[in-house]
Amino acid sequence: MTIAPEPTPDADADLLLGALVERARGGDMHAWARLYQDHWARLLRHVSYLTGDVTAAEDLVQETFAQALASLIRFDARAPFFAWLRGIAMNIVRKHWRTRGRRTRAYTRIEAESGLGLAANDPENNHLSRLRAQTLLAVLDELPEHLREAFVLCDLRDMSTEDAAQELGISPGNLRVRATRARARIRVALTELGWLSPPSGDSP
């Protein structure tokens, strides 16, 4: 007689999550409350990494769950639930980045990473810094979501490869590839816009 293997803890958790999602899609608010409680802390940590502002992140996560509840009926149950939440959060974070007044602070680090740092207390250079921050914001906003997340976590938040990979649910090798591609695209875009000099050998 063949004995079926016992379910693993991960399999049990997946079954429970699937059941909660289905109940929530059917209008069970107790199930939705459980999903909210189970995923709040992880999503808050993720959004905090992306924004660098825990207070703002709390508001953005609240907005994420509100949008998720409104669109839950369209959720594909075959997809990972947290990845779906993270996608909604990323769109909300992008709008947050665009908000006037947050741009320079959010992208000061990008300037440093891109070799665009400027002298302090120089009005002309401060004006250029704001223009560069706006340009960098536009460039980063054009990156595919998976590349943008990798760049933000690795280059702006200074997370280790292992921690960033775990946060995104991918392997460290995959993360390194994404981060490298993101940096390359950013550098190409900034070069084309005239903010960076072409690499030696590329000039006519």
Can you characterise this structure?
The protein is an all-alpha fold and 204 residues long. The chain contains 9 helices and no strands. It has helices at 9-25, 29-51, 54-70, 81-98, 103-113, 123-142, 145-156, 161-168, 172-192. It is elongated.
- Helix run count: 9
Give the low-pLDDT segments. Answer: 100-104, 113-121
Query: Level of helix content?
Result: over 70%
Spell the H/E element sequence. Answer: HHHHHHHHH
Number of E strands: 0
Large-scale geometry: elongated
Q: Estimate what percentage of residues fall within beta strands.
A: under 5%
Radius of gyration: 21 Å
Largest sheet: none
Mean pLDDT: 79
Helix-strand makeup class: mainly alpha
Straight-line distance between termini? 75 Å
